[in-house]
UniProtKB/TrEMBL annotation:
Native source species: Streptomyces pratensis (strain ATCC 33331 / IAF-45CD)
Family statement drawn from the similarity comment of this UniProt entry: Belongs to the binding-protein-dependent transport system permease family.
Protein name: Binding-protein-dependent transport systems inner membrane component
CDD domains in the cross-refs: TM_PBP2
Boundaries of every ABC transmembrane type-1 domain copy: 102-315
Length: 330
């Protein structure tokens, strides 16, 4: 009987494995059918993406590029654009109403956004506790976010803060000076801020999801060390939900810069008495569609984009100092 010894690393006949220097069943270029299948899958993917690509090119990218061109022209929607260089931007900085719109928008962002987020976090912490009817309260607090930006809600809000309305009558009962907020140049901006704070449902849900991820063992250990509610909030809750807080700050800040509908409707289309609610987008709309200065409006739009981009960059830069992630990085 003949004995065949196979050394380690050798390949037995018929086992299907390839040996260096020799061609095997798995070596060589893929068959033509595999190439055809890959091309077909790529083509199918592009076909499914084609509606989005077409929409992006014709409804977003194309109008953006055209508006950038218009920002350097004088264009009134009826005549051909006429190139004027940087005149729209120089006229903008010299316009006192433009400066007023920047002031009103900045005040709205600096006051409305923190108050809205504070209300959202406070309610989220209440709803994070197990209580009877918790699902109902979550839905009730979230509902204003669904209708807050609607025209009907803004009209109702204007009626609530008008002369001799429910807010005015409540002030009289409490002994405060009466007078509707809508007609008062100093108070109408606060009515607008109150409207945006009332729509805290969306950030509340995000905060609630973040609070659910905080380990309860941290609170138990803090209680054993004698920590009170205040210390647990600042040393456990805030650091643990800081990524969620950063996301909400970023999102709500961008939304605040873009406010238009509620300001326009609450002020009855006049951007407020004495331009008190002349937010940036309201003045942009007035210049572009009322005064037919589309070139000027395009310049305002691009300047707003740059401003929001700079604020976003500052927020991302600052997150290294106060946003904590689970892996220990910042």
């Amino acid at each position: 009987m003949t004995h065949i010894q196979i050394s380690p690393g050798a390949v037995a006949p018929g086992d299907g494995r390839s040996v260096p220097g020799r061609s095997g069943p798995g070596d060589g270029p893929p068959p033509n059918g595999a190439k055809g299948t890959g091309r077909g899958e790529n083509l199918a993917g592009y076909l499914f993406m084609s509606p989005w690509i077409a929409g992006f090119l014709f409804l977003i990218a194309g109008p953006m590029v055209f508006s950038l061109y218009l920002s350097f022209t004088e264009y009134n929607l009826f005549e051909a654009p006429r190139w004027i260089g940087l005149r729209n931007f120089t006229d903008m900085f010299a316009d006192p109403r433009w400066r007023q719109s920047v002031k009103v928008t900045s005040w709205y962002v600096l006051i409305g956004t923190p108050v809205k987020l504070a209300a959202a976090l406070a309610v989220a912490m209440l709803l994070a506790q197990k209580r009877w009817g918790q699902s109902f309260y979550r839905a009730a607090f979230y509902a204003p976010s669904l209708i807050g930006a609607s025209v009907s809600a803004a009209i109702v809000w204007r009626a609530l803060f008008s002369d001799d309305a429910i807010v005015d009558r409540t002030q009289k009962v409490l002994g405060f000076e009466a007078g509707g907020w809508i007609g008062d140049p100093e108070m109408i901006i606060y009515a607008l801020i109150a409207l945006t704070v009332w729509q805290f449902g969306a950030p509340m849900v995000i905060f609630l999801a973040g609070l659910k991820q905080v380990p309860q063992e941290l609170y138990e250990a803090a209680e054993m060390d004698g920590a009170g509610r205040r210390r647990k909030f600042f040393h456990i809750t805030l650091p643990m939900i800081s990524p969620v807080l950063f996301f909400n700050v970023l999102l709500e800040t961008i939304h605040s810069f873009q406010i238009f509908g509620s300001a326009y409707i609450v002020s009855n289309g006049s951007c407020g008495p004495a331009d008190a609610t002349l937010v940036y987008t309201c003045y942009l709309y007035e210049q572009g569609f009322v005064n037919s200065r589309m070139g000027f409006a395009s310049a305002m739009g691009w300047l707003l984009l740059v401003a929001v981009g700079l604020v976003t960059a500052v927020l991302f830069r600052s997150q290294k100092r106060w946003v904590h992630y689970e892996e220990g990085g910042r």
